[in-house]
Write a structure and sequence with these properties.
The protein is built from 26 helices and four strands. With 580 residues, it is mainly α.
């Protein structure tokens, strides 16, 4: 028997991690469904005051349990997936405890509750991971659980609700009422559910609709406020340090973003002036006019995906695993409700569900629409939007390739699941800088590799301006350096967003602090890391090897991966000298 102390510690740590994962999924059963773990498909979380108190106590015990292995060496994190997951688990617990203690999330935001309730059922409808009969049983169980879940909300909301969050929750209540009537009925019809079973589902759904009606009334009675959108500097800094593994102070990051913004704006202005369009409004008009025909609409997605795949392979830029995409219209049963909910066109494939072909849903265009409606939709879903957003960033070399590496190459269990899209956000906050950092970097990479048209290059540069503006707003808003209204105005002035878009963007920024920042933070860190590794390796640098190494640990903070890729372990002699 191996009695080596390191082996013994590893076994103890592995047991602690098993307890951590068991607690995480038992407390987040909807996340488990989205992840592809289906033993808890009949459950909802307990977000009541008593439930949150019990969960916080569990997390503190787990944090203490895992603390025996705190401050592991870089060498250990580099070579031991168990040690790496323990470090990530500690960080995740720190973030979850900070969210709980801040009274900013579940204790203030009813939209988190409405989103969790709705998508607890939607998560069982949008993927054919099991026979319809099995999923129907889970749907009925969750429909029956929603009234109790929502009934706990009024008592659990312990602070005045910001008005924009209140509006989002109220809108979701109204949408849910219709969805759990007509939408659920249409889904069952499309899936051939027997009438006898459908009647049972409708009975449970009626109670759910009543619960959303009661919740809407309860929302109207809750105290609301035009303020309260800032999480505060202390919590923001913890999210930055433990969620993104970023040791740079937020104010320093703000200064950097403010310094980069005018450079990005100048580049955009120069590109615009050098184009044949002359002004940004003219560029926007040209982008909207550059769209596929109705007949070409769906095939354009696949054609540009094929272009991206061909260029990446020809340039040997990154390992692209066999995981094909099929672009399909949003199912008819979901189309009336998707615009009102957190309905993603690309929702990350569940790491533990089986897939052959992944279906990427897009806004439909068909003969039932008038010519004017078709033209309006095509102008919004133009060639630039299709290529930059729905192909490169999401469905191709961006998120989809990163998700493939996380699923099939990551030895980190947390890295495999962290960036899974769930009811309102990804499964674990710490997955964000890699998921979004890589996807934004990948879009810049494809520009480097010559994929984009001149109009698409202009759009990509405008995206960089927007990314910097979002980072600036994120820091300013949550440090109390600007109000919600001032953030909305900033987006209008700097990025040119219409008022409704700027309001929606600021609402997202306010609900999820330190999240908008991670796009710029992750992208800039990947770019800096590439230059650092290229400089150190010289002629031995291979782009594909760099990208594969970067992605090999899954969706974990880019700053941590950069440390693992670049920081040299101390030799025994150096360690002795340091101690001395």
């Amino acid at each position: 028997m191996d009695h080596h102390p390191a082996c013994s510690r590893s076994r103890v740590l592995s047991k602690s991690l098993e307890r951590y994962f068991a607690q995480y999924f038992s407390r987040n059963p909807v996340n488990a469904t989205f992840t592809g773990l289906h033993a808890l498909d009949d459950r909802l979380p307990d977000w009541s005051l008593a439930g949150r108190t019990r969960e916080a106590a569990e997390m503190r015990r787990l944090r203490s349990d895992l603390n025996d292995t705190a401050n592991p060496s870089i060498d250990l994190l580099r070579t031991s997936s168990v040690a790496l997951d323990a470090e990530l688990a500690r960080a995740n617990l720190d973030v979850r405890l900070a969210e709980n203690d801040s009274a900013f999330f579940h204790a203030r935001n009813p939209a988190l509750w409405t989103g969790e309730a709705i998508f607890s059922v939607v998560s069982l409808m949008i993927r054919d991971f099991a026979p319809v009969e099995d999923r129907i049983r889970a749907i009925i169980a969750r429909l029956n659980a929603i009234p109790r879940f929502l009934a706990a909300m009024p008592e659990a909301i312990t602070a005045p609700v910001p008005t924009q969050w209140m509006s989002r929750a109220a809108r979701e209540c109204a949408t849910a009422h219709d969805f759990f009537d007509h939408g659920l009925h249409d889904w069952m019809e499309a899936n051939g559910v027997a009438q006898e079973t459908a009647d049972i589902v409708h009975e449970a759904a009626e109670r759910t609709r009543d619960a959303f009606t009661v919740t809407a009334a309860a929302l109207a009675a809750l105290p609301s406020s035009d303020t309260g959108y800032a999480v505060g500097a202390e919590t923001f800094e913890l999210l930055l340090r433990r969620g993104h593994f970023c040791t740079t102070d937020a104010h320093v990051l703000l200064d950097r973003a403010l310094a980069e913004l005018p450079l990005a704006q100048d580049t955009l202005a120069a590109l615009t002036a050098a184009s044949s369009y002359g002004s940004w409004p003219a560029v926007q008009a040209a982008m909207a006019a550059d769209h596929p025909s109705v007949d070409e609409y769906y095939t354009t997605f696949q054609r540009r995906w094929d272009d991206c795949h061909r260029i990446v392979n020809a340039r040997d830029a990154v390992t692209w695993g066999e995981w094909p995409i099929r672009y399909v219209p949003i199912p008819a049963w979901a189309q009336p409700y998707a615009p009102q909910l957190y309905w993603l066109f690309y929702r990350s494939p569940a790491p533990f569900d089986p897939y052959d072909v992944y279906e990427y849903v897009v806004s439909p265009i068909d003969d039932s629409m008038t010519v004017e409606e078709q033209e309006k939709k095509l102008r919004a879903w133009n060639h630039g939007t299709i290529t930059l957003n729905h192909v490169v960033h999401h469905g191709a070399v961006g998120h989809h390739v990163q998700n493939w590496h996380a699923r099939y190459r990551s030895s980190s269990r947390i890295g495999r699941i962290a960036a899974t899209d769930c009811a309102s956000r990804i499964a674990m906050f710490l997955g964000g800088s890699m998921a979004e950092g890589w996807a934004c970097y990948a879009t810049q990479l494809m520009e480097e590799l010559g994929m984009f048209t001149p109009l698409e290059q202009l759009s990509e540069q405008h995206t960089r301006v927007r990314m910097l503006a979002r980072a600036i707003v994120d820091i300013r808003l949550h440090h109390g350096l600007c109000t919600f209204a001032e953030a909305v105005q900033y987006y209008q002035d700097v990025v040119g967003m219409p008022l409704d878009v700027a309001t929606a963007e600021t609402t997202k920024n306010s609900m999820f602090p330190c999240t908008a920042l991670m796009y710029w933070l992750g992208t800039s860190r990947v770019l800096a890391l590439r230059e650092q590794v290229k400089s150190s390796r010289g002629s031995a640098f291979v782009l594909r090897e760099f990208h594969d190494e970067l992605l090999s640990r899954g969706a974990i903070p880019v700053s941590l991966v950069a440390t693992l890729m670049t920081e040299r372990a101390m030799t025994a002699h150096e360690l002795k000298e340091t101690v001395a």
